[in-house]
């Protein structure tokens, strides 16, 4: 069983060497800058010239934007995306703005004994139901002012770049996990708490053993998804419930009675949301509430649609406002999430 949380993913990235190339636009031309992480340390570009001076030639501007791109990537490393085990990623620059989920199809074929002269039975394609996918554009930007140049406030420059990357990945987590967390589930997609007494018999919330009840609830949720023919294998939960959930899924012995480990859940994702302050205004993305979890059948009804990944562009600033340079990043993507056909909301038992 694999577990995924922001801290665990960051720890994994601290091992070994990772090398990729990151693209950006400079004067409308696509360029790339190498990104290298060695044992968790990422190589960045140090600049010893004032920002304004860096905007005076194409070579210097390119070096400046390369630094911005790597600083943004450093921020993205601080907020890893968590939804990859759930979603299948489809990338196509020719995606239309709005379309039905023809790509969320599965084939259904069955072989029959063939009798002479009888027509062959043909298979069919079945599509997941769910909302129409819409591709949307997202953008953010920041400005480097003359004041930053005069006082050579490179530390503020780097802080903004890093925050840009953090905000990008935080939004990706929200776009993909939010539809699961915020959905209004009908009764057939809910599993209520199951209470078990210390002796193993059925109980109530007042006399139940918490760990046995949590174990029974998770097993009931697995059974519910299998009965509904949408077997869940990924659990999305709050990190406050992490130790209890992992203990409940393992083997245990209580009052000389052995209880075997629970199988069927391959991945557990812990997501608590994200929040930040911008211009004295708070922004927050909702995480999984403590005491709830979501058992998910992955991939089949969950598609990440990427028309354009994050692209950083640099432009000359605005003299009337003493802005030396502007950096803008934008990306275009959509999400298809057939929640009702693939997710079970699990109400965890309360701890006495």
Provide key terms for this protein.
352 residues; alpha/beta; six-stranded mixed beta sheet; 21 strands; 26% helix; Aspartate ammonia-lyase
Can you walk me through this structure?
The protein is an alpha/beta fold and about 350 residues long. The protein has a domain at about 1-90 and about 130-175 and about 295-335. The chain is built from seven helices and 21 strands. It has helices at about 5-15, 50-55, 60-80, 145-150, 155-180, 210-225, 240-250; strands at about 1-5, 15-25, 30-40, 40, 90, 100, 105-110, 125, 135, 135-145, 190, 235, 250-255, 255-260, 265-270, 275-280, 280-285, 290-295, 300-315, 325-335, 345. Strands 2, 3, 4, 5, 10, 19 and 20 form a seven-stranded mixed sheet that branches. β19 and β20 (about 325-335) form a beta hairpin. α3 packs across α5 (about 155-180) and α6 (about 210-225) crosses α7 (about 240-250). The longest helix has 29 residues, at about 155-180. The radius of gyration is 25 Å and the shape is elongated.
């Amino acid at each position: 069983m694999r577990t995924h949380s922001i801290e665990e993913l960051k720890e994994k990235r601290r091992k070994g060497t990772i090398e990729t190339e990151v693209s950006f636009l400079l004067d409308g031309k696509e360029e790339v800058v190498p990104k290298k992480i060695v044992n968790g340390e990422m190589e960045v570009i140090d600049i010893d010239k004032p920002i304004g001076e860096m905007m005076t030639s194409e070579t210097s501007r390119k070096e400046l934007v390369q630094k911005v791109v790597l600083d943004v990537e450093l921020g993205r490393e601080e907020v890893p995306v968590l939804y990859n085990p759930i979603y299948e990623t489809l990338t196509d620059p020719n995606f239309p703005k709005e379309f039905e989920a023809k790509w969320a199809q599965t084939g259904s074929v069955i072989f029959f004994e063939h009798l002479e002269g009888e027509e062959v039975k043909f298979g069919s394609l079945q599509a997941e139901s769910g909302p129409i996918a819409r591709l949307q554009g997202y953008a953010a930007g920041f400005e480097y002012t003359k004041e930053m140049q005069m006082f050579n406030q490179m530390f503020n420059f780097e802080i903004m770049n890093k925050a840009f990357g953090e905000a990008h990945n935080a939004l990706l987590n929200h776009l993909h996990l939010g539809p699961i967390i915020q959905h209004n589930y009908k009764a057939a997609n809910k599993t209520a708490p199951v209470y078990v007494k210390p002796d193993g018999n059925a109980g109530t919330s007042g006399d139940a053993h918490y760990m046995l009840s949590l174990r029974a609830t998770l097993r009931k949720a697995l059974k519910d998804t299998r009965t509904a023919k949408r077997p869940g294998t990924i659990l999305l939960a709050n990190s406050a419930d992490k130790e209890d959930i992992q203990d409940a899924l393992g083997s245990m012995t209580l009052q000389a009675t052995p209880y075997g480990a629970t199988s069927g859940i391959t991945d557990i994702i812990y997501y608590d949301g994200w929040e930040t302050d911008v211009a004295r205004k708070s922004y927050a993305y909702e995480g999984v509430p403590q005491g709830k979890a979501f058992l998910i059948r992955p991939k089949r009804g969950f598609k990440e649609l990427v028309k354009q990944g994050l692209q950083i562009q640099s432009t000359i600033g605005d003299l009337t406002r003493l802005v030396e340079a502007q950096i803008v990043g934008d990306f275009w993507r959509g999400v298809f999430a057939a929640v009702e056909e693939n997710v079970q909301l699990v109400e965890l038992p309360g701890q006495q």
